[in-house]
Specification:
Strand order of the largest sheet: 1-4-5-15-10-11-14
Largest sheet: 7 strands, mixed
Structural class: alpha/beta
Number of strands: 15
GO molecular function: L-serine hydro-lyase (adding indole, L-tryptophan-forming) activity; pyridoxal phosphate binding; tryptophan synthase activity
CATH topology of one domain: Rossmann fold
Pathway: Amino-acid biosynthesis; L-tryptophan biosynthesis; L-tryptophan from chorismate: step 5/5
Strand content: 15-25%
Catalytic activity: (1S,2R)-1-C-(indol-3-yl)glycerol 3-phosphate + L-serine = D-glyceraldehyde 3-phosphate + L-tryptophan + H2O
Protein name: Tryptophan synthase beta chain
Keywords: Amino-acid biosynthesis, Aromatic amino acid biosynthesis, Lyase, Pyridoxal phosphate, Tryptophan biosynthesis
Helix content: 40-55%
CATH class of one domain: Alpha Beta
CATH architecture of one domain: 3-Layer(aba) Sandwich
Length: 456
């Protein structure tokens, strides 16, 4: 009898609601602060950047937020996404563990990012917005928002981190195919970009700098808003459709995860797979170990400080409490561009502080090695970001092998690596070195954190 590999839901089984973990947390998320007054910000403070519907989702504590039917209709282009049992990887590793992976690379843009790009474009269109500005690292988010913009007739301007802009020209070509404009960041199109280039003309860029440029242009025009691909509460909530679908599919497989693994940069795909399972445990259900895997060259969860910080390098955003390497920290130019962010999502950071998840970090070389092992067993070439989750899952499977335990492992394969083959070529040629961040720069960035008094 053959073993089942794919677990598929019908379109009518797609979740009708996103899950909001804020409803179940034992301790409320620390407030977002105005950088000038250090007082909690209100909806009006965010109105220049986001439509009110997204602002209300950002602060909501309702457990379920309904997914609008026009959004669900577009989701049907690729959702529900498949859940796979990695039989061949299990065999290659010789592990008694059962390995499942949720595959988000089936979306038109090739990653999990359209799960939030579509609703963000929808709510902005409803609010009469004509143009969206955003940032992107590897280009997964920029591609996804460009795709969403094309469906809702919105102009999209993307600032792509310079090192990724140079590394991944085909990602830029996809954005342009969808009708967006893509600029390298730092650029000469903004006052902040020009100030960075004046100090260092060959600056490799960072997500923090690209965010500053996108925010600067968004607030200059009434018809323009800003869209963010990770970090914010509403973004993480939109991604929970991943974990909600996985729960249904695991029941079809008569399984439940002992361990849930996700890669972390800003936190969105990790939250998407993990938050529904964390919430299930908080409500009295079976508890899973939750493991966040991040790059050793940009280790906000494992090396960062839990403190209030700016979300961008130009200090144009509100202050949020998160695990941060310091807003002025520039990560080295490793290939997982989507993980090159100085801070971790406040909700993910908060969950770590509450002991609801654990974090680990691996080098670029270790993660590419894991990605190649996975590709040769399962056939899918993962994106460099997703390789971190693959590495984390393989390590858990090898632990099960050492301990003789038949645990169930679930991880999120958040995107394919079809536009990242130059990185794989470098790996095979032995040219992909493990980038190291500058300890002095990290210390300097952390020493410059805003001074925010602890609440009485």
């Amino acid at each position: 009898m053959s073993l089942q590999t794919k677990y598929l839901l019908d379109e009518n089984q797609m979740p009708k609601f996103w899950y909001n973990i804020q409803a179940d947390l034992p301790k409320a998320l620390p407030a977002v602060l105005h950088p000038g007054t250090l007082q909690p910000i209100g909806p009006d403070d965010l109105a220049p950047l986001f439509p009110m519907e997204l602002i209300m989702q950002e602060v909501s504590t309702e457990r379920e937020i309904e997914i609008p039917e026009p959004v669900r209709d577009i989701y049907r282009l690729w959702r529900p996404a498949p859940l796979y049992r990695a039989h061949r990887l299990e065999k290659a590793l010789g592990t008694p563990a059962k390995i499942f992976y949720k595959y988000e690379g089936v979306s038109p843009a090739g990653s999990h990012k359209p799960n939030t790009a579509i609703p963000q474009a929808f709510y902005n269109k409803q609010a009469g917005v004509k143009r969206l500005t955003t940032e992107t690292g590897a280009g997964q988010w920029g591609t996804s928002l460009s795709f969403a913009g094309s469906l809702f007739d919105l102009e999209v301007l993307v600032f792509q981190v310079r090192v990724s802009y140079d590394q991944k020209p085909y990602r830029r070509a996809v954005m342009e195919t969808y009708g967006a404009r893509c600029l390298p960041s730092p650029s000469n199109q903004t006052e902040y970009g020009r100030s960075v280039l004046a100090q260092r003309p060959d600056h490799p860029g960072s997500l923090g700098i690209a965010i500053s440029e996108a925010v600067e242009l968004a607030v200059q025009r009434e018809d323009t808003k800003y869209a963010l691909g990770s970090v914010l509460n509403h973004v993480l909530m939109h991604q929970t459709i991943i974990g909600l679908e996985a729960m249904e599919q695991l029941q079809m497989a008569d399984a439940w995860p002992d361990v849930v693994v996700g890669c972390t940069g800003g936190g969105s795909n990790f939250a998407g797979i993990a938050f529904p399972f964390i919430g299930h445990a908080l409500r009295g259900g079976k508890k899973s170990r939750i493991v966040a895997v991040e790059p050793a060259a940009c280790p906000s969860l494992t090396r960062g400080k839990y403190a209030y910080d700016f979300g961008d390098t130009g200090h144009m955003t509100p202050l949020t409490k998160m695990h941060t390497l310091g807003s002025t920290f520039t990560p080295p130019g490793f290939h997982a561009g989507g993980l090159r962010y100085h801070g971790m999502a406040p909700l993910v950071s908060h969950c770590k502080e509450l002991g609801l998840l654990e974090a680990t970090a691996y080098t670029q070389g270790q993660c590419f090695e894991a990605g190649v092992t996975f590709a040769r067993a399962e056939g899918i070439v993962p994106a460099p970001e997703a390789n971190h989750a693959v590495k984390g899952a393989i390590e858990e499977a090898l632990r099960c092998k050492r301990e003789g335990k038949s645990e169930t492992i679930l991880f999120n394969l958040c995107g394919h690596g079809h536009f990242d083959m130059a990185a794989y070529q470098k790996y095979f040629a032995g040219e992909l070195k493990d980038e190291q961040y500058d300890e002095k720069e990290l210390a300097m960035a952390l020493s410059g954190l805003p001074s925010v008094p602890e609440p009485a």
